[in-house]
Amino acid sequence: MNRIKLELPAAQHFLFTTEITPRINDINYGNHLGHDHLISLMHEARVRFLKKYDFSEIDIAGTSIIMADLAVTYKAEVAWGERLTFDIAIYSPSSAGCNFFYHIKNAGSGAEVARAKTGIVFFDYKKKKVARMPEAFAKLFR
Q: Which residues contact 66 (CB under 8 A, 6 or more apart)?
């Protein structure tokens, strides 16, 4: 069976780090972090990243974002009480979108937990169409 391979972006693309501790309701019957809850924690990390730059998912210099794709590779289990570090990179910009990369590690041991990528597209919800990447966001890459 072929597996998804997510290569780490270059170090200069990592712009943000945050720490999140999964809650008890994030733990599934296998006694580890559920895959669906990891995606919710990635969402939290992305919102924190945007807030650092005075953006939100609904307002990035007057434009919103919408998810185009998602890929995750799991490297280790996460038990209740373990803290996670989310390092976020932005790479592969285009005129209307980019990729967010999440390098997720155990904050205590530094062990890699997961790698993930979300493709985002800038979107005008009023017009229901793709929009150009705002210059204020593009400056993060330069």
A: 120, 121, 123
Q: Specify the amino acid at residue 14.
A: F
Which token pair is 119?
A: 């493709």
Domains of the chain (ranges; CATH) run 14-141 (3.10.129.10)
Enumerate residue ranges in the chain where pLDDT < 70.
none
Half-sphere exposure (Cβ direction) of 65: Cα atoms closer than 13 Å: 23
Q: Which residues pair with 70 in a beta bridge?
A: 118
d(CA 28, CA 46): 23
* Rg value, the chain, Cα: 16
**Chain segment 110-132, per-residue pLDDT in tens:** 999 999 999 999 999 999 999 99
Residue closest to 120 by CA, chosen among 142, 89, 87? 89
Report which residue type is found at 68.
A
